[in-house]
Amino acid sequence: MTVTTDQLREDVARELDRARRRTRALTDAVDDSELVRQHSPLMSPLVWDLAHVGNQEELWLVREVGGREAVRRDLDELYDAFRHARRERPGLPLLSPDEARRYSTGVRDQALDVLSRARFEGDPLLADGFAFGMVIQHEQQHAETMLATHQLRSGVPALAAGPPPAALVPVAGEVLVPGGPFSMGAEVEPWALDNERPSRVVDVPGFFIDAAPVTNAQYAAFIADGGYGDERWWSPEGWAHRQAADLSAPMHWRGAEGGWSCVQFGREAPLAGDQPVVHVCFYEAEAYATWAGRRLPTEAEWEKAARWDPLTGRSRRYPWGDEAPTARHANLGQRHLSPAPVGAYPAGASPLGAHQLIGDVWEWTSSPFVAYPGFAPFPYREYSEVFFGSRQKVLRGGSFGTDAVACRASFRNWDHPIRRQIFSGFRCARDARPDEVR
Ligand SMILES: [Fe+2]
């Protein structure tokens, strides 16, 4: 990256500020009694997230990078995500909303002072401002988690945003991704996380992938065809979960066949048939794909479809190129509070014609979350390594709730296959027959 130290400082300060504004918007939207309440056992009280982002910033920027005294060492245990499961967090002696705000602001003041003196060289934690980038991504990832908490809360709607853009082009069917090698993983991305590295060449046989994520209308057809009652479409684990959890439609759908509506952030509206389906678990995605005579893409297939440029053979940062995402490219950054209809982002399409790979909905892949060959934990094992091999599945591409700073075509998210409070959808793939690839 060829930016000057001053430019990097400015970029970091702007991104820190942007992350904090979003944290504030999500926490100031409700009153204090709602901040300390647990809206779902799946999620933390919002006030926990608020102090936790401050605590991570203190650990990495104030103490580790700045070499300074602790602001509140006594909080480390309380806000350590590994010590306390989400369902336990409301019972902890957490900071009050006012205390949490004051604490996070105090940490931020010190972090900005550390930034003003930082030299971005030598220590790998400081090269290209990595530690700052990690903390910024962390806060924005919690902003998405907090948005998911808002989706689970009941009561008067607290968030508002403009509707997503309308479809500009028709998008349907599938695109062929020819077989052959491509470069997978982050090469030059300065703030890429340890699990995206190292990059390597992967040979992917030819396959077809949907030109767009599966829509609500397509998913409703699976339900109307009795998909939830037909064991043939489900894996054994998926079927066991479908029965145990009594699944019969995506989370937040209301009504019944022919008259579906869905609840988004406290507002119920008729289901938008042309928007990607969201709030489905891995098992539901897998069952739909099997019903449709297809399968989920592997993680390598998804990344090749999103990054590989057939003209140059190189891997792009995003489907449309190396340029950072704008409102023209993708539905990111909580600009809208739902996925956009298929065809709304022609400027964000890949060279092969796959649309909306970035933004709208996280896309389940068939791949378990494992280390890339040559993986090295950085800067700590708990970032990724402890999750490898845990039967969690990889999701790709980011959602409308994901910020651009925590989203790129090499970015890997992971979650348990039963999770669906996240903004998760999917698209299907299939092998290419020899006669289809010539
Ligand atoms: Fe965290």
UniProtKB/TrEMBL annotation:
<feature type="domain" description="DinB-like">
    <location>
        <begin position="15"/>
        <end position="146"/>
    </location>
</feature>
<comment type="similarity">
    <text>Belongs to the EgtB family.</text>
</comment>
<dbReference type="InterPro" id="IPR032890">
    <property type="entry name" value="EgtB_Actinobacteria"/>
</dbReference>
<comment type="function">
    <text>Catalyzes the oxidative sulfurization of hercynine (N-alpha,N-alpha,N-alpha-trimethyl-L-histidine) into hercynyl-gamma-L-glutamyl-L-cysteine sulfoxide, a step in the biosynthesis pathway of ergothioneine.</text>
</comment>
<dbReference type="InterPro" id="IPR016187">
    <property type="entry name" value="CTDL_fold"/>
</dbReference>
<feature type="binding site">
    <location>
        <position position="142"/>
    </location>
    <ligand>
        <name>Fe cation</name>
    </ligand>
</feature>
<protein>
    <recommendedName>
        <fullName>Hercynine oxygenase</fullName>
        <ecNumber>1.14.99.50</ecNumber>
    </recommendedName>
</protein>
<keyword id="KW-0560">Oxidoreductase</keyword>
<keyword id="KW-0479">Metal-binding</keyword>
<feature type="binding site">
    <location>
        <begin position="86"/>
        <end position="89"/>
    </location>
    <ligand>
        <name>gamma-L-glutamyl-L-cysteine</name>
    </ligand>
</feature>
<feature type="binding site">
    <location>
        <position position="415"/>
    </location>
    <ligand>
        <name>gamma-L-glutamyl-L-cysteine</name>
    </ligand>
</feature>
<feature type="binding site">
    <location>
        <position position="52"/>
    </location>
    <ligand>
        <name>Fe cation</name>
    </ligand>
</feature>
<feature type="domain" description="Sulfatase-modifying factor enzyme-like">
    <location>
        <begin position="172"/>
        <end position="430"/>
    </location>
</feature>
<comment type="pathway">
    <text>Amino-acid biosynthesis; ergothioneine biosynthesis.</text>
</comment>
<dbReference type="InterPro" id="IPR051043">
    <property type="entry name" value="Sulfatase_Mod_Factor_Kinase"/>
</dbReference>
<dbReference type="InterPro" id="IPR024775">
    <property type="entry name" value="DinB-like"/>
</dbReference>
<dbReference type="InterPro" id="IPR042095">
    <property type="entry name" value="SUMF_sf"/>
</dbReference>
<dbReference type="Pfam" id="PF12867">
    <property type="entry name" value="DinB_2"/>
</dbReference>
<keyword id="KW-0408">Iron</keyword>
<feature type="binding site">
    <location>
        <position position="419"/>
    </location>
    <ligand>
        <name>gamma-L-glutamyl-L-cysteine</name>
    </ligand>
</feature>
<dbReference type="InterPro" id="IPR005532">
    <property type="entry name" value="SUMF_dom"/>
</dbReference>
<keyword id="KW-0503">Monooxygenase</keyword>
<dbReference type="InterPro" id="IPR017806">
    <property type="entry name" value="EgtB"/>
</dbReference>
<dbReference type="InterPro" id="IPR034660">
    <property type="entry name" value="DinB/YfiT-like"/>
</dbReference>
<feature type="binding site">
    <location>
        <position position="138"/>
    </location>
    <ligand>
        <name>Fe cation</name>
    </ligand>
</feature>
<dbReference type="Pfam" id="PF03781">
    <property type="entry name" value="FGE-sulfatase"/>
</dbReference>
